[in-house]
Amino acid sequence: MSSTLTQNGKPYLIAVGAICNTTIFRVDQVPALPAKTLANDMRLLIDGMAASAACAFARLGGHAEMWARVGDDDHGQEMRRALSADGLDTRHLHTVPGSQSSQSVIIVDGKGDRLVTAFHDPRTDASPAWLPLERLASAGLLHCDVRWVEGAEAALKAARACGIPSMVDGDVAPLEVLDRLIPLARYAIFSDAGLLAYARCEDVEQALMQVGSTHDGHVGASCGALGYYWYEEGKIRHVAAPVVDVVDTLAAGDVFHGAFALGLLEGRDIEACARFACAAASLKCTQFGGRLACPSRDEVEALLAL
Predict the structure, then answer these.
(1) 27 - beta bridge partners?
(2) With contact defined as beta carbons under 8 Å apart, do 87 and 111 qualify?
(3) Of 3, 22, 67, 78, which is most buried by a Cβ count within 10 Å?
(4) pTM for this model (two decimals)
(5) CB neighbours of 9 closer than 8 A, spacing ≥ 6?
(6) What does the alpha-carbon distance between residue 136 and residue 157 come to, in Å, rounded to a whole number?
């Protein structure tokens, strides 16, 4: 795939989704309730599935623009500042009058697993009417998560209408949401749990056969330490993930999506995209901090060269 380039010559991604003001605590283990425990590390950041993928895309060498809603509060201003500092184009973050910005607290245990608690203001207007959809014509790829279905659906339909390839992060979500969004994407890249929920079955390969045989684009599943599986011409293909010491799995799937998207826009085939993305996601898991632990391009290339 060839990409439309920005003025600085980098592959250009537009990302659509929800963003949160997030606090991550690291603990040895999550105790049974009721309990108190002390964290041994913490991070403050702005994240979200599509936002984390866009940050990874930018860190690895692309140019990413974020379309999302923020609250009419100090947190909304901080979201703009923080994402801009991390390399994202935030000109099209939309402030919703009278609303609070989304908040989340994430606890990561000693095995790298996590507990996520999030708050999204129900007063936040879900309308996508403000989206600058005309900008899609100059982008290389649209990437959407499933947390703001109205915005994702509008953008995916507009991308299809103007011939721009699109990707959906098929994470766990209400089935009616997945049913609305997945058919609109050229690249339907699921988490393993999201795929199984969407296909209504309990086996990844069976689910890929079922979904891939009826989808008019690419269908795959990121399966953590097991790597990436995808459907291709009636068969299931697989790329293994590098073996690493896992510290924190938070945002690994998002880093995978950002890296995979960059690989596509750099002209890699699916297998090469999968290897690149598995390497980036695996390296992310070796460091605490969610998306902040996304590796550099040099680190990913060094791992691939081993």
Answers:
(1) none
(2) no
(3) 67
(4) 0.95
(5) none
(6) 11
Instruction: Count how many residues are written for the chain.
Output: 306
Identify the three-state secondary structure at position 299. Answer: helix
- Tokens 């994470």, located at residue: 171
Looking only at the bridges linking them, the beta strands covering 20-26 and 41-47 are antiparallel
Q: What is the pLDDT along the chain (306 residues), one digit of tens a residue?
A: 444 555 468 999 999 999 999 999 999 999 999 999 999 999 999 999 999 999 999 999 999 999 999 999 999 999 999 999 999 999 999 999 999 999 999 999 999 888 999 999 998 999 999 999 999 999 999 999 999 999 999 999 999 999 999 999 999 999 999 999 999 999 999 999 999 999 999 999 999 999 999 999 999 999 999 999 999 999 999 999 999 999 999 999 999 999 999 999 999 999 999 999 999 999 999 999 999 999 999 999 999 999
Provide the residue type at 177 as one letter.
Answer: V
Q: What are the beta bridge partners of residue 107?
A: 25, 115
User: How far is Cα 274 from Cα 256, in angstroms, rounded to an integer?
Assistant: 8
Q: So where are the chain's domains?
A: 12-120+141-297
43 to 5, 40, 78, 217, 249: CA distances (angstroms): 34, 11, 15, 38, 14
CA atoms within 13 A on the CB side of 135: 18
Helix (H) or strand (E) holding 61, with range, is: none
* Distance of alpha carbon 59 from the chain centroid: 14
Both structure tokens of 84 = 């801009």
Q: Which of 79, 105, 90 is nearest to 25 (CA)?
A: 105
